[in-house]
Design goal:
By secondary structure, the chain is an alpha+beta fold. It has 13 helices and 13 strands. Strand 9 (271-276) and strand 10 form a beta hairpin.
């Protein structure tokens, strides 16, 4: 039990469970709406908060529409005090993760809470009970279902908005989580890189030598053959990331679902495939930071039936000047051969040519020293840290 394990440390005590807080599973449409809209009160007045589109969040929670539910299980919970929603959490059973990693781990995610350790305790105890009932021996999170979604709690870098498809939370969340018995499992880094700063001459020279020596060609994604390209990238993705901490291969439906969602964001010039003798061996995906546009929609595409949010979104999307490098990897047999430097350089040059100011590279593992040093050598500066927590059950 998590409580017993933590109480062995005489300096640590879990906060008391509040008698006036009720935690119940999401069962109705009104519950789902409350689950989604609690963010508006939690982040009221926060200039860096970017709400998800409500229609996207409903689909994300819908077992009929999201492919995770084909094999996984999620229970969504709401915490109420005197009838007012004061927190939420999701408990997640991801059997594919445990099969691939050889673990017995449950997950929590989608955590939002008022600044009250007792309310947080009620949420975590409820989620932990759900996971214990399924036989899990530890819990990991926050994760939006898996490492293929939004991962980690922001613990530094609160002065700037989140990049698209990354997490954001109030600074006090770390204290709420740690007060309830969680400890660090892994930190993830985000890096800021300006497109106006040329890469070091030595890095560019070495990358060009590798390009010639290995016979590497880099081409943009062919959007006219999108499905075929997705199939190639899918194979590379599951090969390139299989040894990463927390990795779990996507199913065919998961990958296709994500590809469809991202298609509207992709600029082919910034989705690069590295090939050797016609064989795809590496891939880099950089997308415009749609959060710059999503912020003006404030979570809703329509107001009183009028497409006001959609109009704002479309107008703002034309002004996006930042990017996020989401994926960059090479398949087994081509790692540590400099292909990543070629992909970084080609992405940077193309971003500059297209008029982008720069953006974020995220995320990387804290102990992936090779990749982190490579980013630093290109002029990247660490800008944010996300933490994944763990706790025995």
């Amino acid at each position: 039990m998590a409580v017993a394990a933590k109480q062995q440390n005489t300096d640590f005590q879990l906060p008391p469970l509040p008698a006036d807080v009720e935690v119940t599973p999401v069962r109705t449409s009104a519950d789902r709406t409350a689950f989604i809209r609690i963010t508006y009160s939690i982040y009221e007045g926060d200039p860096n908060f970017v709400p998800h589109l409500e229609m996207e969040r409903r689909d994300f929670m819908d077992p009929r529409k999201h492919p995770f539910f084909e094999f996984g299980e999620v229970e969504f919970f709401l915490a109420r005090r005197a009838g007012k929603v004061v927190g939420r959490i999701a408990a997640v059973n991801n059997p594919r993760y445990n099969e691939f990693q050889g673990t017995n781990v449950g997950f929590f995610g989608l955590f939002e809470c008022v600044n009250d350790v007792g309310v947080a305790r009620a949420l975590f105890e409820t989620a932990a009970g759900w996971l214990r009932a399924r036989g899990f021996t530890s819990v990991l999170g926050p994760m939006s279902y898996s490492t293929n979604g939004e991962v980690g709690l922001l613990i530094d870098g609160f002065t700037t908005p989140p990049a698209v498809m990354t997490t954001y939370n109030p600074p006090w969340y770390a204290a709420l989580i740690e007060a309830n018995g969680f400890t660090k499992a892994k930190d993830l880094y985000a890096w800021e890189l300006s497109a106006s700063t040329p890469p070091p001459e030595k890095v560019a020279r070495i990358a060009e030598k590798i390009r010639q020596r290995e016979g590497v060609t880099v081409r943009p994604l062919n959007m006219k053959e999108f499905d075929a390209e997705v199939a190639r990238v899918k194979t590379m993705y599951n090969s390139a990331w299989e040894k990463n901490w927390g990795f779990v291969p996507m199913t065919e439906h998961e990958f296709d679902h994500l590809a469809r969602e991202m298609k509207q964001l992709v600029r082919s010039e910034l989705a690069l495939v590295a090939e050797v003798k016609g064989e795809p061996v590496g891939f880099a995906l950089t997308i415009p930071d749609a959060n710059e546009a999503l912020k003006v929609a404030n979570g809703r595409l329509t107001t009183f039936g009028l497409p006001i949010g959609l109009a704002k979104l479309l107008i703002a999307s034309r002004r996006i000047r930042r990017l996020r490098l989401v994926l960059l990897g090479t398949v087994e047999g081509y790692r540590r051969r400099g292909l990543d430097a070629i992909l970084y350089l080609d992405t940077l040059n193309k971003a500059r040519e297209l008029g982008y100011e720069g953006g974020e590279i995220s995320w990387t593992l804290e102990d992936n020293h090779l990749v982190n040093r490579a980013i630093e050598s290109m002029g990247g500066k660490r800008s944010k840290t996300y933490r994944v927590y763990e706790m025995p059950l």
